[in-house]
Structure to design on (130 residues):
């Protein structure tokens, strides 16, 4: 059974950091483009924002303007994991964060902007509040 699981969410103060982890069972993440999406409170599923996506081929990454310079996406092939390092968190980063996998051949920007993914995890809550 193919499954994606996110972990690492929690409550953090503004300016703090969190690292989200994405793991998979039943398939190898390295063969897929991976994305991190978020759904803010009060937003519909269709309004999920592509935060960061990374290519399956050349390691290119895309970041939404809202997180550029603060978030970093990375892979650990040996562990079959993908991470999202989030620094200088702001209250507007509060959301449920989803890890996704996309088997198509497309740019990470397109994956994020058009929300293209074959598999979605169930999400992990990130709350930024003092």
């Amino acid at each position: 059974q193919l499954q994606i699981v996110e972990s690492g969410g929690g409550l953090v103060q503004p300016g703090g950091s969190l690292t989200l982890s994405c793991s998979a069972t039943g398939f190898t993440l390295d063969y897929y483009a991976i994305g991190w999406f978020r759904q803010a409170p009060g937003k519909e599923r269709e309004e999920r924002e592509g935060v960061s996506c990374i290519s399956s081929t050349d390691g290119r990454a895309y970041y939404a303007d809202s997180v550029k310079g603060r978030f970093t996406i990375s892979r650990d092939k040996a562990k079959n994991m993908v991470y999202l390092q989030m620094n200088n968190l702001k209250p507007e980063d509060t959301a449920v964060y989803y890890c996704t996998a996309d088997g198509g051949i497309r740019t990470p920007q397109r994956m994020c902007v058009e929300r293209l993914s074959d598999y979605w995890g169930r999400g992990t809550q990130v709350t930024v509040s003092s």
Summary: The chain has one helix and eleven strands.
